[in-house]
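Hi L.,

As promised, XRE family transcriptional regulator:
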Amino acid sequence: MSEDWAAVAKAINERVKELGWQQQELAARSHVSSAIVREIQRNTVNRKRSPRTLESLSIALGWHPQHLESVLHGERPPERDELTQQNLSARLDALEQRLDGIADQLATVIRLLASSRSPKDR
């Protein structure tokens, strides 16, 4: 199955222009690094990307989670409301993993803050 990264770049660029966004805004909204967004938008580095990257970009752009994956493979992108039970479960699993990661990071910050307080603050 061939991959058309130029089509992905075109779809993203058209949508970003339509929304009036800058590259940084797409990166922030999708939680994808600016460097990766730039590579994909400019179609400069054609390498295997995590399906989660394309999913995050699709969702940030207001599309179905599988939109860009479909574009990549030359398929018709699903409509936004075509969420199946399987897609919904996968999205919930991904969100749960992200929340677990955030909770771990928060616990680390709390521990660091607690250990950095001076003895008279305790």
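Helices lie at 5-19, 23-30, 34-42, 51-60, 67-72, 85-116.

Thanks again for sending the construct details.

K.
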